[in-house]
Amino acid sequence: MIDNKKQEENSSLILRIIGMLFFLWLFLLSIKLLGGTFKHYFSDDTADLIKNATDNPLVSLFIGILATAIIQSSSSTTSIIVAFVGAGTLSLHNAIPMIMGANIGTSITGILVSFGQMRNKMEFNRSFSAAIVHDYFNWFAVLLFLPLEIMTGVLEKSAIFLTSIFMGTSGMTFKSPLDSVVKPIARSIEHFVSNIMGNQTIEDKIQYDGALLTVMVILSLMLLFVALNYMSAIMKKLLIGKFERIIHKYVFNQATTALLFGILFTVSVQSSSITISVVVPLVGAGILSMEQIFPYAVGANIGTTITGILAALVTGSPAGISIALVHTLFNIFAAAVFIPLKALPIGAANWFASKAGENKLWAIGYALIVFFIIPLLIIFS
After folding, report:
1. Where in the chain are the domains?
2. Do residues 237 and 16 make contact, with C-beta atoms less than 8 angstroms apart?
3. CA–CA separation, 254 vs 110, rounded Å?
């Protein structure tokens, strides 16, 4: 009986690993399709329109916030940005504020989780503060590094420098081994869809129009969202039970271990939203404190950048790799500054959570105004 149970567990583990590899391949395929679609469709003039539309760093920042808040996945947003930059339809310079905005937008998931404890005033106060401390950390990081980036270009220059080291020279094209796994299938899908829609192919070059672009973008995004969703779900099933047993014993006794675990857990589940959502109820229940979970939340920000790096590798573009590295560097620099200054985001989060505890409309208004109303006003003004 015990042997049968063990065999079932082993079979389940193998199936989950196979499933994880399949959805990782599907994710890479979706990035290749998305990047290829924009690269093949956009003329230089149309690409210039996109670049000009995002030339305002404030608008770019709020595009990143709004897009991530809507789909509740910074991994998806950054992967799309990487595909755009890799295809050359969005410049590295203009994409950087979007990446910063994606960091902020992903915080909404933890806030929604905290709403589940609204009935108990004390628990809601604690859980809401745990949710928004992640948001406040991201806002403080943007307030510091966005003006610094505009004035000095420190993130862009650092990322380009690292890319040139990894690739030997900034002018070469990176030949990713991942590309060969997805490129033939991506090209076959493009040809198949274009043939169904009656678009001509001249010398193996697909003649794109608006209708084909729309269909290919929708198809690519569907594959991307499905892949990330199932990758996350599989890893959550593999790790979440172990996570709950480990945290009390090993993780939150020191800031360093909490930071590292936040990074590793997020890399594993491919979602900082899950990483944060797991601890929000634990803070609400009084099991963990704000000081304990803060470095863990910062680690989640760093860990989530691995998705963008994977996406960049499959683009084969130096610019795509650079924007993925910008995301990583931004979060590492922010961690270096604000872990020692943790009193700032923690104090701000506790203050606002106390207001929200007295009147729940503060919390609801915060989510609506910060993540939706302000971004919409900024973008479309």
Report:
1. 2-380
2. yes
3. 23
Q: Quick check: 164 and 319 in contact, CB under 8 A?
A: no
pLDDT one-digit tens code per residue, 264-279: 888 876 667 777 877 8
Q: Taking residues 272-296, what's their average pLDDT?
A: 83
Q: Please state, as a whole number, how many other Cβ atoms lie within 10 Å of the Cβ of residue 40.
A: 17
Task: Name the token pair of 327.
Answer: 């995301």
**In terms of Cα–Cα distance, which of 279, 304, 303 is closest to 131?**
279
| Cβ–Cβ under 8 Å, residues 130 and 347 | no
Q: Is the pTM of this model over 0.90?
A: no
Short-list 311, 309, 310, 232, CA closest to 277: 232
Spell out the alpha helix ranges (H) of the chain: 2-41, 44-53, 57-71, 74-87, 92-105, 108-114, 121-152, 154-167, 177-196, 210-246, 255-269, 272-284, 290-303, 305-315, 318-338, 343-358, 360-368, 374-380
Q: Identify the residue whose tokens are 């601890």.
A: 279
